[in-house]
Amino acid sequence: MLEKEMIAAASAGNAAELRELIKRGATLDARDASGATALLVATHENRIDAARALIEAGADVNAKDKIEDSPYLYAGARGHLEILKLTLANGADLKSTNRYGGTALIPAAERGHVETVKTLIEAGVDVDHVNRLGWTALIEAIILGTGGEKHTEIVRLLIDAGANVNLADGEGVSPLSHARQRGYGRIEKLLTAAGAR
Fold first, then answer.
1. In which ranges do the ANK repeats occur (predicted)?
2. Class level of CATH domain 99-197
């Protein structure tokens, strides 16, 4: 019963109630029907105080649900920066991957979360990791991005972090070719200046 209360308190962002339930013996790894822990539920809702309370109590930032999301991976993918920083400070596995075989950096780059990308690069996530689709963070920022300000800045951050600008996708199409096909002139310039062919 306490476990259901934990999940509800996490979803509502009630940090005080979570601390009380933990004191009363609720287990930190209680899961809902989707396999999400209370910490992942709090992360879904971007409930920072609740996430902090759970992490301080020792909740596992790498515990995955049935679709391979963990608090760390989800916070990265959704740009929930404060929770991401908490997970990074508390044992986030930088090599862990989501259901697409991608690190937290790849969806963060795709979705245009500039500060999240910066944070993950600084944490040491592999900038050239290739997911099951054959895509890197650089390729996703181009082919699933908008070519606008945020995605251009993400491409710049990835290049500055040493991303391989010639690492092609699974079909052999280079980042530069993808940028040209989409008419992303500023991204094309950045890639060319970095030696992209």
1. 34-66, 67-99, 100-132, 133-170
2. mainly alpha
